[in-house]
Amino acid sequence: MKAIYGMSAPVRWRMLVSVLIGIARIAASLAFVWASKHLVDIATKVSADPLKDGIIIFVCVLFFQLGVVVLANWWDGYCEVKARNLLRLDTFAHVMRSRWDGRERFLSGDTVNRLEEDIRVVSELLVGRIPGMIITFLQLIAASIYLLFIAPNLLWVLLILMFSAVFGSKMFFRQLRKLMARIRARESELQQHMQESLQHRVLVLTLTNLERVLSKFGWMQDDIEDNTRKRLNYNAVARGLMFLGFQAGHAAAFIWGVVGIIHGTVTYGMMTAFLQLVGQVQRPIAEFGRQVPAFILALTSVERIMELQELEPEPTAEAIMLPGAPDVDISHVSYSYPDSSEKVLEDFSCGFPAGSFTVVAGPTGAGKSTLIRLILGLLTPSEGDIRVGGNKAGAALRGNFMYIPQGNSLLSGTIRSNLQLAAPSATEEQMQDALETATAGFVFELPKGLDTPCGEVGSGLSEGQCQRIAIARGLLRPGGILILDESTSALDDATEEKLLQNLCNSYHGRKTIIFISHRQAAMKYADGVVKLG
């Protein structure tokens, strides 16, 4: 409940407006009951009011009711979109700003599923179901008071019948919640499976493992279908009990009115009011029962969003920009990843002098990439100290790094949008200089130049082309420390040689260059080599 209250903060005033519009709908519906009764009483000579006046009142009430319903539907739809966007942005921002410990707690497909489907469900809960339940409760109270004045005994009969039906269906709610949790978890797994299979489709096809992928997809869908069928079975029984109570209430009201007419205690107008008020008393109770499974689904989604929002945020600090080419000093650093007793680095010390070109070499698994993450402040050493320009490494210093990760790190979009990720205000000339330095001048030979689409993870370009564009993106950063993490692995020898020459001509002595590589080409340009493992 605390989490729901917190999530509702940006849309609380909209929820209040929804309740106020709902109160207007209640007033309109009760006015319609009165206008209907009044018109029938005029027709049956119980009331001496002119028929014309009764019809005018009836039509006015009808149009008022129509206007309120249209307004409510528009407002509910708008609020749901607004709530979904605000909540998704807030949760996505929290996930992106959370502390990274080297291993993501949630798979990307699962996280996307939570940000899409679970956010949608929670948004409906906040701006639809919660105000709806408040309105429903108020409608029940208002209709019950109205019925209490004209037929108090009938009211108690209706309440007993409907609440018995609601409590009778309650025995299924716990099972419904368990089933919904299973369905949501399996849907996340299915989305992750689809996402990974599509991203690595070439790999799946070349390994001739398509049937295994499709088989796993099939049994996941079968499991969702099986649990959904069980949920529908429980729902059907619960709704059946609700419908039984609903029909019994209508039958009781109808018989009550017939007997009253026979004995002269009920007018035809009162009979009309009875039948309408029965619906207005029963509908809220039935709505409470109908909303319970939806609340169960929503609570499951709330818990899944809470898990994202409970990710530990990365400590924030005011950015520190260092002048020139800062040095990096690593002193007696040890580090092991969470849930692992094996130390990737143990009592490790080294230095990267200001303006130097240093190659970090070592076998796979020796801790080269881990070392870079520690320098960038993404990870925190369990022992020892890392200083950048005399300052303790951390998020505050991250703006001083021109970082180029290993592999293909382009995002969907155009080459221009990828470059602007590093420098949003970069000019055409600056982008051209960075591309030329990264030996990526081929971009200007493409039909659309900088506006060439990259596609997902750079599809449409070769691995080497993507890598050179990623290098150019890193070079657009304003920092004084240039870090390349196996950034030439997809380049041929001649292109790598040209790139290294360009980097040395442009940055050697002006930037502190840390180059992770096991290839010999970089060694001859280096001032020193740090070996791991």
The total number of structural domains is 2
Amino- and carboxy-terminal Cα gap = 51 Å
Describe the biggest sheet?
A: 5 strands, parallel
Examine the secondary-structure arrangement and name the CATH architecture of the largest domain.
Up-down Bundle
Average pLDDT for all residues: 83
CATH top level label of the largest domain:
Mainly Alpha
Please report which band the strand proportion falls in: under 5%, 5-15%, 15-25%, 25-35%, 35-45% or over 45%. Answer: 5-15%
| Low-pLDDT runs | none
Strand order of the largest sheet: 6-7-8-3-9
**CATH topology term of the largest domain:** ABC transporter transmembrane region fold
| Secondary-structure element order, N to C | HHHHHHHHHEEEHEEEHHHEHEHE
User: Going by CATH, what is the homologous superfamily of the largest domain?
Assistant: ABC transporter type 1, transmembrane domain
Structural class: alpha/beta
Q: What is the β-strand count?
A: 9
Regarding quaternary structure, what we see is single chain
Principal-axes geometry comes out as elongated
Rg value: 34 Å
Specify the helix fraction band. 55-70%
